[in-house]
Amino acid sequence: MIDTILMHEPAIRLGVFTGVLAAMALWEIAAPRRPQRYSRRQRWPHNLMIVALDTLAVRLVFPLAAVGAALLAAEHGWGLFNTLASPGWLAILVSFVALDMAIYFQHRLFHAVPWFWRLHRMHHADLEFDVTTGLRFHPLEILISMVIKLAAVMALGAPMLAVLIFEVVLNATSMFNHGNVHLPAWLDRHLRRFVVTPEMHRVHHSIIPRETDSNFGFNLPWWDHLFGTYRAQPAAGHLDMTIGLEAFRDARALRLDRLLIQPFLDPSRHESDKTPRA
Questions:
Q1: In the record, what terms sit under GO molecular function (predicted)?
Q2: Strand partners of residue 206
Q3: pTM metric for this prediction
Q4: Of 30, 83, 85, 230, which residue has the fewest beta carbons closer than 10 angstroms?
């Protein structure tokens, strides 16, 4: 079974990625939540090229990635679930939830540590909020994130299947919760009990720092409630809130070359971006 999954892993990842991306793009056209000032033509080619660079970087530096780390840990008996006798389904479920909590704290770390924030702010500097924003991360951030994820996988002794499910679901929910899509209020109210919705995560992309430093969850919403970082709505409302960062308002900053060098630019003229995130 493991050999079969490994053989089809690239196809599984690519199939889910393209399917969710296409579905969200069509949903954004059919039922957008907010009017957009900057067109897809201005933003999407650059955001999608970042995805290609991120994928290439991970494959070059970590050829086996997180799934390989899970197999290595199992082979050597490393990690919690490789030393405990527990049902397979329980190991998968607990590993999924634990990895999601690790990603929540990683996200907070990238806001709190100034140099990590320099990398992560590229994600926040998008001047619109849509499905491709959920894919837009600096390659150096992706590599650091992968190191943290590998450590979590090996410490847990997470089953390979749990890691694959987690990564596929996380990628899909990141596209979903960054979608510029309309959800009925009653549906959003029920959904956000179990998954981070676009209405919940959009608050995190507000230009107001106290809103930027809230709603850190990407997949499960429970950590924000549990650790006091949940904010239900933006102060200005979803239609009137400003997306992005004060330091990067020029449309030229949406270009691929500017995205790649952004961590090395000095935004010191803006006090809000000098302040470490909390």
A1: iron ion binding; oxidoreductase activity
A2: 243
A3: 0.92
A4: 85
Average pLDDT of span 215-222:
96
Q: How confident is the model at residue 127 (pLDDT cuts 50, 70, 90)?
A: very high
Distance (Å, whole) CA 102 – CA 150: 11
Q: Structure tokens of 231? A: 């904010």
The CA distance from 169 to 7, in Å, is: 19
Tell me the DSSP string of the chain: -HHHHHHHHHHHHHHHHHHHHHHHHHHHHHSBSS--SS-HHHHHHHHHHHHHHHHHHHHHH-SSHHHHHHHHHHHHT-SGGGTS---HHHHHHHHHHHHHHHHHHHHHHHHHSHHHHHHHHHHHT-SS-SGGGGG---HHHHHHHHHHHHHHHHHHT--HHHHHHHHHHHHHHHHHHT--B---HHHHHHHTTTS--HHHHHGGGBSSHHHHTS---SS-SHHHHHTT----S-TT-TTTPPBS-TT---GGGGSHHHHHHGGGS--TT-HHHHSPP-
Decide if 130 contacts 36 (C-beta within 8 A): yes
What are the pLDDT digits (tens) for 20-38?
A: 999 999 999 999 999 999 9
Residue 219 burial (CB count, 10 A): 24
- The answer to whether 122 and 51 have CB atoms below 8 angstroms apart is no
Dihedrals phi, psi of 181, to nearest 5 degrees: -125, 150
Over its C-alpha atoms, the chain yields an Rg (Å, rounded) of 19
Q: What is the pLDDT of residue 254?
A: 93
